[in-house]
Design goal:
Length: 143
C-alpha cells in the first residue's frame, strides 16, 4: 500500500491526535503540518505589519514630531516592535526547522537520542526537539 502524503490529507476540524494511533502517523503529521504552516503564515503577515510600524515610528521620530514625551513613547514603541520582530524571527526559524524534520522523517523524535518525544509533549510544544528528561538535563547544564 502506498504511503499517504501528510501534506495533502484533509482532516476533520475536530481531529486531535490520539495515543491510540501509531506515533507520528500520517494524520498526526498532517495535524502538526497544518498547525505549523498556519503559525508560519501568521508570523509572515505580522512581520510586515511590525516592520511597517517601526518604519513609521522612526520616520516620525526623525521628523521631530511631537514633544519629548511623544518622542520617548515613539522610541519605546520602536524598541518593543523590534523585540517582537526578533522573537517572531526566532520562532519562524524553529517552525521552519520543525517542517524540515517532518520532511526527513525525524519530527517528533529527539535530536539527541532519536527516541519518541511523546504525543502529549508534542501537543503541548510542537517545536520540541528533545524528550522532557533530555530538556531538563540540557537546562541543568546551561544554568
Amino acid at each position: 500500500m502506498a504511503k499517504k502524503n501528510y501534506k495533502n490529507i484533509e482532516l476533520s476540524p475536530k481531529y486531535t491526535p490520539k495515543k491510540s494511533e501509531p506515533y507520528m502517523c500520517d494524520e498526526q503529521l498532517a495535524y502538526f503540518y497544518h498547525m505549523l504552516n498556519t503559525q508560519r503564515e501568521e508570523i509572515l503577515q505580522d512581520r510586515d505589519s511590525v516592520l511597517s510600524d517601526v518604519r513609521m515610528a522612526e520616520k516620525n521620530e526623525s521628523a521631530g514630531v511631537g514633544d519629548e514625551q511623544d518622542q520617548a513613547s515613539a522610541e519605546q514603541e520602536i524598541t518593543m516592535n523590534l523585540r517582537i520582530s526578533e522573537r517572531n524571527s526566532n520562532l519562524l526559524q524553529k517552525i521552519n526547522a520543525a517542517l524540515e524534520r517532518m520532511e526527513n522523517g525525524t519530527f517528533g523524535y529527539s535530536v539527541i537520542s532519536g527516541e519518541e518525544i511523546g504525543l502529549q509533549r508534542m501537543l503541548a510544544r510542537p517545536l520540541a526537539t528533545m524528550t522532557i528528561e533530555e530538556q531538563e538535563e540540557h537546562e541543568k547544564r546551561n544554568k
